[in-house]
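Support request, priority: normal
Reporter: lab tech (M.K.)
Component: structure prediction queue

Hi team, I submitted a job for Quinone oxidoreductase family protein from Thauera mechernichensis yesterday, and the status page still shows it as pending. I've pasted the exact input below so you can check whether something in the sequence is tripping the parser. The sequence length should be 324 residues. Please let me know if I need to resubmit or if it's stuck on your end.
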Amino acid sequence: MSHAIRFHRTGGPEVLQWEAVVLPPPAAGEVRLRHHAVGLNFIDTYHRSGLYPLALPSGLGMEAAGVVEAVGEGVTEVKAGDRVAYTNGPLDAYSEQRNIPARFLVPLPDDISFEQGAAMMLQGITAHYLLHSTYPVKAGETILVHAAAGGVGSILVQWAKLLGATVIGTVGNDDKAARALALGCDHVIVYARERFPERVRELTAGRGVAVVYDSVGRDTFLDSVSCLQRRGTMVSYGNATGPVAPFDCALLHKSGSVFVTRPGLPDYIATREELLERAAALFEVVRGGKVRIEIMQRFALKDAAQAHRELEGRRTTGSTVLLP
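Reply from support: The job had stalled in the queue. We restarted it manually and it finished. Here are the results:
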């Protein structure tokens, strides 16, 4: 009997249940996948809480890595025995086994572990599209990365340095500040004791930054906009403190004719070609040692509720994996 985390009502971590599940044979276009590691992401808490509504009861989780056990009719992308990873498709990554359409799977290189694969797909591909597509960062630009010691943030910092950017990072405490500096941040702001908009203006001689990558949401949005240089870009890609409140669009003109965008992963891997291209770019920098995927926390999959408590309590750094 296989098991999975499921929830029948929205709410706090306590709604997550470890349940026995029966899997049918994979349908046409699907594969049966046995997970070796599952990624933990803030978006999982949005699904669980109801911020992003789902039909209930539901599974949970958007990324994992494992081995293909069986394939359904017409599957050509992978075969039984292949090592694979994914970051899209129906929510059910918090499971020991699952069926999933083969089009979402990416072959996992032999020199990338299952834990790395599970920890890097959503966060790493997100970092890739943010830096290369949402706002293509250029050498010599100064950028601001919130939660610079977190999962996506830690990858953004390293990759932005590869692109030649000057990186200012914000973090919540001194331990995370030390980690952000080790990752490559040129300047780190501990927002618990410094007002980051004033510090950013000081660090940029009053000019501001070309782009802000903000996964925090409600608590930082307006201050983030105030950090931008003229015609800068505000990239709001997460809601860790809650959704951004409505605002008057005139604010964008008053702030220097700045741009605001709210990107989402599915729109940047809308085709299999895009998915494979972004995954290949991610694998290249990881395999070359240019971007490190550091797994700082591990939990048993059945203890997913505790993992959510740690994540929402901002007691995690880097990446976290759940182990079936």
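The CA atoms of residues 24 and 99 lie 8 Å apart. The mean pLDDT is 96. Let us know if anything else looks off. Ticket resolved.
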